[in-house]
Amino acid sequence: MQIPYVIDNIEQRLADVLRYLLSRASDQSLDIATAYFSIRGFEQLRHELETTGQVRLLLGDKPVAADDLGMRPDSSAFLRHELNAEAFTERTLRLVEQLIRFLRRDEVEVRLYTGLLAGEKGRRAFLHAKCYLLYGRLPAANVFDPLTPIVGIVGSSNFTGPGLVSNHELNLVHKTLLTDAELDDAEAKATVAQHAAQLSAAPLELEHERMLKSEIGTRAILDLSRWYEQQWQHALDYKEQLIELLENSKFGGREYSPYEIYMKALYTYFKDDLAERDQQPATRSAVELAEFQEDAVRKARRILAQYDGAIVADSVGLGKTWIGKKLLEDYAYHQRQKALVICPASLRGMWERELHSATIAAQVLTQERLGLDEFDGREFFDVDLILVDEAHNFRNKRAKRYQQLELLLAANGRRGRSGSRKKLILLTATPINNNIFDLYNQINLFTGNDRSYFASAGIGDLYKYFLAARCESLEAGSIRIFNLLEEVVIRRTRQFIRRAYPEALIHGEPIRWPTRQLHSVEYDLQAAYSGLYQNIIGSIEGLHLAHYNLEAYKLRPSDQDEFELGRQAALVGIFKSRFLKRLESSIEAFRISIRRSLAFVKTFAEYVQDGIVLDSVSFQQAMRLLEADEEDSDDSTPSSQASALDEHAAASLIIAKLPKLEASKYDRRRLHRALQADIDALNEIWHAIKHIQASHDAKLLQLQSLLASQLNGCKVVIFTYYKDTARYVYQALTEASNAEWLATLGNPTIRRIDSSVKTTDRTRIVSHFAPRASNQPELVGTSDEVQILIATDVLSEGHNLQDCGHLLNYDLHWNPTRMVQRAGRIDRLGSNFDLLHVYNMFPERELEALLGLVRSLTSKIDLINQTGFLDASVLGEVVTPRDFNTLKRIADEDHSVIEEQESFLELASSESLFAELQNVLATDAQRWLTDLDDGIHSGIERRNAKGLFFYFTAPRDGSTAHFWRYYDLEKQTITDNRYTIMQLIACSPDTPRFAPPYSEVDIFAIHDTILNSILRDVQQQVTATVVDKIVAPEQNVIAQLLHNNLAQPGVDRGEVRELRKMLKEPQVGAVVQRLRKTLNRYNADNDLLALLEVLRELYQTQGRSNLEPSGPVSMITRDDLTLVCYEYIYA
């Protein structure tokens, strides 16, 4: 090979020239000056460098401020960036190991340039030069001077892979010695001869000197050598630091601790959230928030920008209203968008006042009005933003209010007045009440039934995602859907806020967090029922409730529906447990239940006697119409209401429309015997309890005693589950015969709130009970101020009662989470109490027996559930083993149970992890975290685990995509649930490092398996957004029907094309329901024009939704993925 004079990596590559020189020379040494150094540069020369003698490597300096280019490059940072970006392969690992061995040789020196600019003190210059000097003896050259380079290369090529091979560079080669071939250079000879002829007049000796001087190779090399020595003297030893940098990388041998992996994962995962917190608000605000509320607003803004919908699910009393108000200010005030607030009627006045106080132009619509059949929502079709308060009231997709909201959101192609996609904010402390699909239905409000809506988050089919979580407990289900919760839900508990924001302020004042103290109030349940308790319990246990279990009375087992058989058997258990719950609540609630049930069974039995078998659940609708007209206080023996049903216009109409079951399929004689047995048992109970007076009610008397002693002079709210109990207690406390007792209390004002109280009256009563919280301090101390408030759970929704410090639960907590929700009414931001008292009434001797009865019924229902024959509507009323244990702990005044229940209410969340990271950063640990290289690893011991955790990131659609994966070595399965993985890697600073079993695991093969899995997942996500959406079957049928009828008269092909496009897109449930009815009508009358008319109307109101939630999902390649960290997790 002839050494060129110019090297540009086009005709000649610098790597090839250096390899040739290093392999041809003997006794060689090498000096290199470079701004940047990379492992790929070393890779080009690694074999030749192994046999090279002394090697000196001079690197550019660390960054300093430049005059006109911002920050100058950092050679160390360049190398670190390259190592972080390198794919994790065995080949690269071996390369780095070889480089470290090479650097550890005594003959190898590395320095970092620190020279100063001439004439200036304390200001460093960056070494940007690139120079390669080779010392040694070339073949055919007999002269050797070990201090003089034989070749010098200077130009633009850094000692990097691209610098040596692929970049278009320009380097000039200077030589001291020439080979024989280079001496016989015809082109050079001709040039010299030409110059000689032109200068023949000059003295020969002068021309000879001129030509020698023109040979600049030797002169240049000597100058380069002196230059290099000068720069070398202005550099500091950097060899160990370079080795350390390599050892710290994912290819090095540094042993990182499990805590460093944990913190690396958290810091990377929350990096965007941290950057968000550092941003200052761009606009002024009239809504002053606490720090934790501001954090929620920031996160909600990001979620809304990406998904057009967000759920704020903080615990009761943490100011969700204010968070929503700040978001409304963003859109309705600053962006001048059209906004709508939907709330319960009882909260309408509060929202109107709050909006007015911040000059936010938004309309307020009550949920009750929204649910009316005659509701006309056209004035809201162009709304840009809808905020729903108490959004859990939209958990039922079949409810009228839900369907009306669906239509408001779907109108105008889901676009608002601004032309942008509509936004939806849901506020609720309990997004899940019965089962996980409560949350699904609420999220579906902003997905518009598009099951691929969250494809970019790794959820290709939202419905199947929830279906997989539905069969698990609430706690396990929320963990199962954790990745989705992280995308759209903001959820923090009171204890988390208290722990994570210990110095939180609101309106400049420290937030007071009262302590909740439990008190048990015992009473004699046997005495409350005049000694008849045991007999009554026995009668309830013996009830057949055949009217709820009709499937069991079919003559032939072959006619029985197995699912319905199990469901109805469970219903029998549910209704028996209802009797027991109302029995414990109050004598009056139980009395009314027995009275209504007796009338119901007698009526039902009369229909059966006449050969008519009706669906009992539907039959209740007609019976309720009669109940509305009757007096529950009537103590006459209930009789059959069959005649009354026939005479009642609305009830008889319902009866007429009810599906008549085939009476011939039922054993009517056995059914009638069971009904008659229940009539006899209920009659016996009725006659035993109908005359028990309030003055002999041991439970009520105990309440009165408590109010006259410990709670005398205190503002108290008394909660009960049942409206009948609330009325009974109110009447008993306020009746004239209690005048003397009331006088001992100072004649307090007592009021009642339940579902029968008008909304306006509820608002007035609440403001009189909590005048300070309602901004009516002038009522304090007046006769209008309410001291004792008796309420059902209609009051536990959205009202601020922090003027009150005492709460009493009149009946047992069959659902203990209600206690937390009720406590949240008085434990709210702005409370002036340091201690809040929660009183709970328990039957003294009968508690265990009562719990045993309900537990027995629950166990039977659970056995049925295990066969798969129950649905959510039944399971929502079942008391869980956790609830039984909690009830006992409440009775024992275990104060920790409140916070535990609040935690149970909380959906699985990473907020505590974010708070943990913030605490670490508060100790100035950010530099430590940023210095942790990508791709680092460790090992941690975990019980019952054997696998590997991998964490990758990739740039995607303007943000960062996070891929957490756990590979189970025994099952050979891959898990992507971040909550589950977080539990595996979470640890403390002193957690010992588990020595990874390198020999047992092919880490590179598993790494590639994980990578391929991620790429497959991404491909499925992309596919989900480009293939036809999953739509209701009716849509496909109608679309095909339109296609088949294109040639029919009156059919416009262009119009049909647009209608079919609309039908190929997901439609909300209300639209699907109408399409189903329209299709049924078409199948009956074959009227194509009527079908087209309905479709035109839908197209005009709903339009087409062409806007994706976050734009098309972009593809990710293997090169896009960066390994953040990985960890061996072993038992």
UniProtKB/TrEMBL annotation:
Q: Name one GO molecular function term.
A: hydrolase activity
Keywords of this protein's UniProt record, alphabetized? ATP-binding, Helicase, Hydrolase, Nucleotide-binding
Helicase C-terminal domain location is: 702-875
Domain Helicase ATP-binding intervals: 301-449
Signal peptide boundaries:
none
What CDD domains does UniProt report for this protein, alphabetically?
A: PLDc_N_Snf2_like, SF2_C_SNF
- Which SMART domains did the record assign? DEXDc, HELICc
Q: What GO terms describe the biological role, i.e. biological process, of this protein?
A: DNA repair; replication fork processing
Q: Which domain of life is it from?
A: Bacteria
The entry's protein name is Helicase domain protein
Record organism:
Herpetosiphon aurantiacus (strain ATCC 23779 / DSM 785 / 114-95)
